[in-house]
Amino acid sequence: MNISGGTGPDEKFVPRPSDWGRIETAYGHSFSEEGKRQIIDLVDKYFFWQPGEANAPFVDDAINYLNALEKAGKRFWQTMLEREDIPALIGDARLRGDAIIFVQNHVGRYLERFDFRRKTDWDALQNTMGACVAAFGKTRQYLVGEAADRGFVEGRAWNNLVWNLAVFVEAKQLPFRVSKGDGPTRASPFVRFVWELQETFPSRFRRHHASLIALAEAISVARREIKRALARREAQKINSPDAPT
Length: 245
Prior knowledge:
- By secondary structure, this protein is an all-alpha fold.
- The chain folds into two domains: 17-56 and 152-239, no CATH class; 61-148, no CATH class.
- It contains eight helices and no strands.
- It has helices at residues 17-27, 33-54, 59-81, 93-106, 119-150, 156-171, 189-199, 212-239.
């Protein structure tokens, strides 16, 4: 499972009149100029977010890296707490070396701020380490929550596109449902719409394009996943301490 906060290059969706003709024929309905602009905006958002999620590190790898940082941070503090003469540690070359190596590896850009011969800077280092260790739990919670509900998980951008397209056409009282009987020679209007729309995308942005059956199933799965994510998010708002009573 990939997760990322990044985005892709600023690629825009620019369908030609002939593209719209094929899309509308496949769907069996026409779009106004304003409707076309709304569809373009939805696709542009997909083009913007999809590359970032596709190129992201796996969330499990990010968690493993976080675990390694947390382990190193705990080792730092265990070493500190094992010693009662903390003020004297400024001159302890072994401990000071461990601390410097950790900071160089993970917060090295701040290293020039510290002169470990001075107690004030040694205290500053401890404060920095304390802040880092305290942030690990919050970071893990954020990563897991984002991956589960609203993170840039691989495939989520496409799911959002399908969901938003369905919301768009439903608001215009156009077909948005997916039939369980969709097959190679028969497909719901909405499935045909998404299929033909994707035909106008660069190949790297097309998803579940092996067959109409595969696309219909993927659309159904996307809707279920987004619906569950929205429900969880709403439940979190209701259960939040800041929620109005």
